[in-house]
Design goal:
By secondary structure, the chain is an alpha+beta fold. The protein is built from 5 helices and 10 strands, in the order βααββαββββααβββ. Strand 4 and strand 5 form a beta hairpin.
């Protein structure tokens, strides 16, 4: 699968700036629904796995694109992005680093260890109460199933089909923490997981991926 990474190396931001960074780019390049994930005519949210994701990686504003379709959008961004605006502060873009590569994606016969670099938003309103009232063993099983579902859902949107014999396995070692999403405090999770599925570095899993949540990194 093709992956592109655009880093604005002369700018330093913090993780809580991610949604403002995304919002600015989405407004400037409003003609591309892949960036802001809103229907161009109705303005309604498009519920799909984000092919363009915004991150703050080691304080550097970074945009990730997956698949040929999304990577092609990067040409316009790379050529025309001269500044970003955060909290009314205009920040010139002097240094842009664009890396395009082919990465592994899909089922594997071995397991790989990944780290959640940013909090994974796993729970929704429907399963939050069930998780809250469950014992530790049940909570762990729930989260493992949710993570497997996240991977399967992403794979389907990226047109990757698992055969009937292929079963995704996940095992987690994570800790719960409170995070703020759209002004509301919710539970997020950080730590490690193993799975028998190739996942590219710095993509997101779970909810609010385009805002930088659920960012993963390959360890082993």
């Amino acid at each position: 699968m093709k992956k592109a990474t655009l880093s604005l190396n002369n700018i330093e931001l913090k993780p809580h700036h991610t949604h403002k960074f995304r919002g600015y780019i989405g407004n400037v390049f409003a003609d591309y629904d892949l960036i802001h994930n809103h229907d161009l005519e109705s303005g309604k949210n498009l519920y799909r796995y984000p092919l363009i994701q915004f991150k703050i990686i080691r304080d550097t504003p970074t945009i990730i694109a997956l698949t040929d379709k999304a990577v092609s959008v990067f040409t316009d961004i790379f050529m025309n992005l001269e500044e970003i605006v955060i909290d009314d502060l205009v920040i010139p873009v002097y240094e842009k680093d664009l890396k395009v590569e082919e990465v592994k994606f899909g089922f594997a016969d071995e397991h790989f260890l990944y780290e959640f670099k940013s909090p994974w938003i796993a729970l929704n309103q429907k399963n939050y109460q069930a998780y809250k009232c469950a014992d530790y063993e049940t909570q762990t099983l729930m989260l493992s199933r949710i993570l497997t579902g996240n991977i399967i859902s992403m794979a389907k949107y990226l047109n990757y089909t698992l055969s009937q014999e292929q079963r995704i396995n996940t095992k987690l070692e994570i800790n719960q923490q409170t995070v703020t999403l759209k002004g509301t405090k919710i539970w997020g999770f950080k730590g490690y997981f193993k799975t028998n599925f190739h996942l590219p570095d710095n993509i997101g899993l779970g909810k609010s991926v385009s805002r930088g949540f659920g960012n993963i990194g390959l360890l082993l």
